[in-house]
Structures are given as C-alpha cells and as structure tokens.
TrEMBL record:
Residues 1-22 form the signal peptide. Residues 31-57, 69-88 are annotated as: Disordered. The keyword Transmembrane helix does not apply. This is Lipoprotein. Transmembrane segments: none annotated. Residues 69-86 have a biased composition (Low complexity). Keywords: Signal. The keyword Signal applies.
Amino acid sequence: MSSRRPARPVVLLATIASAVFAACAEGASSAGAANATPDPAPVARAGPPRASPADSIAAAARATVMDSTPVPATAPASTGPAAIATDTGTRVTQDTAAAAAAARARAVANGTQEAERGGLLGPKAGDRHIAFRNAGSNLDSLWPVKGPAPLPGSILPAKRIVAFYGNPLSRRMGILGEFDSEEMLRKLDAEVAAWNALDPAHPVQPALHLIVLVADATPGASGKYRTRHDSAMIEKVYGWARSRNALLFVDLQVGQSTLQHELPWIEKFLVRPDVHLGIDPEFSMKGGGIPGRRIGTYDAADINYASRFLSDLVKKHQLPPKILVVHRFTPRGVTNYKQIALDPNVQIVMHMDGFGPPWMKRDTYWRDIKREPVQFTGWKQFTKAKNDRPPTPRSEILRLWPVPLYIQIQ
C-alpha cells in the first residue's frame, strides 16, 4: 500500500461533509428561526488538553510495526532512527524529539506498505486481510478488550445494535430522512430480520441514530458553526423509535462549540433509559477552522468527559448503562486512545465511519479500530452505491475481528 493510501477515506469523506452542510441548509433553514433552540448562557470551563502529535504517531507506529507481518514471521531487527518507533521504553530527549517523530511517521508508512506487499491489506488481500479473524494478525489476541463486566441492563455484548442514521429534515444526510417514516421503519424491520437470521446468537436491538446538532459551514447566530434542532423534531423521532422498541441515539457535531457546552442542552433526553449518545470527531473544530474544510478530532480527554457525563446521569437517575458511540475514520480522529477510561456505567463503541469499496473499509477498520482497542466496535454501511462500491456483504462484516456489535446504516 502506498504511503498515501490510508488518507484516501479522508478525501472521500470531505465529499460527504459538503453534503452535510447542504442538508443542514436544506433542513435547518426551512425550519426557520422558530425551530432553533437558543444557546444557554456561556459558562466558564477548562478545555481538554491538546493532544501530543508525537504520542499519536508513536501509538500508530507501534501498532503498524506489530501487525505488518503474519503471526509466524519474526520482525527484523531495527537499527538507527527507525528503532525509536518500536522501542516503547525509550525516552526521547527534547533535542531528538523532531527526529523521533519523523522516524515514527516513516515507520507507519513503511509498515502499512509492508503489509500490503505481503497481501494482508489493500485490494488484493481478499480472505487474507488482517482485519478478518484468524488471518494472521498479531492483534487478534487484544480482543475482546478486558474491561468492566457488563452490569444488569447492559445491551452489549449480548445484543447487536442495528441503527438507521440521519436527520428527517434532509434526504441526503442518511436513511433516517431519505424516506417517509413508515417506509423507513419497514426497511429497519427488514434489516433487523436479516441480521437476526445471520447471527441469531446476537439478537438485534434496533435503533434510530439522529443528528440533533448539525455542523455548518457558516457561523450562524451563535458563531459556533453548528445548528441545534428543536425538541419537537427530537420527540417525533423518539416516537418513531418507541414504535419499534428501538433505542434513540442523539448525535452531536459540535463545530466550534464543545461537548462541555452542548451536553447539558441534550441532557433532558439522555435521562431517558432508551436514549444514548453519539459524538463525531470529524466536526470537532478545535483551535478554529470551518467544518468540512478539514477533518476535526477528539482527544481521550474529550471522550472521557462525555463518558463521565453519561455515568453521572446513570448514577443520579438509576438508569441502565448508557452507550457512547464515537465515529472514526482517520488516525488523528481520536488521539491518545490508551487514556480512554472504561466505566461500567458506559459502554463505548468505536465506530468505523469510513466508506468506499469493501477492501478500503477493511483497511480503515484495521488501522483505526482493530489496532487501537478501546471496548466495542462498530461498522458503517451506506445505502448508496456511490459511497460503498459495492456495499460490504453482512456475512463479511461478521468475519471481522473483533466482530462489530454496532451496525450503522446511512
């Protein structure tokens, strides 16, 4: 695989980002100012610490080098600067930090190229792809992740969540708004039946995944490059979910806002036992920037903040454990993953959010999900052939390791 190949899903997702902004204008503008919820008064808050690029590159380099050859093979000894990338105990001094970062970046590129040359990644991998179970990946043993035992009322890992994603104000943001509600729910029923037939050991828990805070290419009245949708629309979709005994996920694209600013706004829905949370690093514009012009990021500190927020609600209101879905399709989309803290009151799903042909999505799943284990995993499927070319068969998704327990249909 060329050193630029892993970045291709980023370019592709920029196209989706532009569609999101068009849909935001289509939906939010037509709804009118009367439907927008005013911002609460600003509160003093401390932002999360900035991620260290060296830490992120080092983690990626270690994973790539570890998993770039089949299990029986022995990694060749490294000498010189490249050795820094695989030596987790080496302290890099301030004078050599820049050289070490460059060496780590080369290790990531070289490791990925080596994996493709070995037929383990890329379009020629086929059944040997190292995202699959028992395909020779040294990372298989990292899964399932050792963490808190599921509490009573937990959905994962006993069930698989199948969620329809989007916003009913736009037909272009996902299947949730592409059809009228009755047709959409019939399609959800059919999708649930298909997954239940393939994997009866994990009965499906249906869900609707609603974007309630939509990133925008313009600052808007708040100046935060995002649009809040009103409670009436959220209640309507919640009613659709209840009609199918489905969960509702409320998804936040914060733009230039923050989770600290936005989570209290949506708390009145999150206190319901069947409402859960999604957060989207792609549209988290730290340090400024306009959504869609570059890809955003969350650090472990941000994810931990959201998890603590949910955990506090669980304890305060005696709720069953919450689910936190974190979308991801780039290495920098989530930084310092090893610092993400697991909490028995919150089940974290790292969701592979990229699109493209099946081999490219498997590459992304291996790179951004499998080799950076957190807790549970998810997989995105698009309904449009222009996005998934072609869609990955359900049976192939079940061959991945770890097997995704959250399936999102957009």
